[in-house]
Amino acid sequence: MNSNVTRYQRFALSLLLLLSITSKVFANAENEMAAEGLPHVSITPQLCIIKSDDERCRTEVAIHWENVSGVVCIEADSDSFHAWCASSTEQQSHTFTLDTDTDVHFVLKDKASGQLLAGIDFKTTLVAKQPLRRRYRNPWSLF
Predict the structure, then answer these.
(1) CB-based burial of residue 39 (10 Å sphere; 0-12 exposed, 13-18 middle, 19+ buried)?
(2) Angstrom distance (rounded) from CA 43 to CA 71
(3) Which residues contact 64 (CB under 8 A, 6 or more apart)?
(4) Domain for residue 23, yes or no?
(5) Are 22 and 43 in the same domain?
(6) Residue at 135 is within a domain
(7) Cis before residue 45, ω within 30 degrees of 0?
(8) How far is CA 12 from CA 15, 17, 101, in A?
(9) Predicted local confidence at residue 1, as pLDDT
(10) Based on the structure, what is the number of domains in the chain?
(11) At 18, which helix (H) or strand (E)?
């Protein structure tokens, strides 16, 4: 039992360490892009966890963008999201309800030129199922 606890603790610590490192890498990349004046897009939330293959993820999603000079349009590779265009250059975010059972890739385009400015993914994943424990003793006995 103690070996299982320490195994799970090691796994949890290594996962936290990995998340910490990747968040620092992404934060540095975002700071570099902002410093260079490149278009940047972010999505909240980035991930949806579903219980089974036949379940759909239905959630409020917000897309934010920075360092964009013109009016933008958002397109996606999903039938659940219809292309949308901002009404002015001051608008820097869009919130909507997303209903999907697959990953969705969003792209930010310049409305006037159609030039691709940035892209971002919304991920869906199945919840991890707990492994079944094997019984070491039979439920019956001869004695």
Answers:
(1) middle
(2) 18
(3) 41, 42, 43, 44, 92, 93
(4) yes
(5) no
(6) no
(7) yes
(8) 5, 9, 27
(9) 47
(10) 2
(11) helix 2-36
**Joined tokens for residue 31:** 């700071």
Find the domain containing 29 and state its range. Answer: 1-36
Our separate counts of H helices and E strands in the chain read: 1, 8
For residues 56 and 29, state if they share a domain: no
Helix H or strand E encompassing 66: strand 57-66
Q: Do residue 25 and residue 67 come from a single domain?
A: no
**DSSP-derived secondary structure letter, 22:** H
Q: Answer yes or no: do 43 and 98 share one domain.
A: yes
Is the CB of residue 93 less than 8 Å from the CB of residue 68?
A: no
List, for residues 27-71, the tens digit of each pLDDT value: 555 555 444 678 899 999 999 988 888 889 999 999 999 988 889
The mean pLDDT of 106-124, rounded to a whole number, is 93
Local structure of residue 89 (DSSP, 8 states): T
- Which tokens sit at 142? 């001869």
Could you tell me if 64 and 118 lie in one domain?
A: yes
Same domain, 52 and 120: yes
Instruction: Note whether residue 142 is domain-resident.
Output: no
Q: How many CB atoms lie within 10 A of CB 81?
A: 19
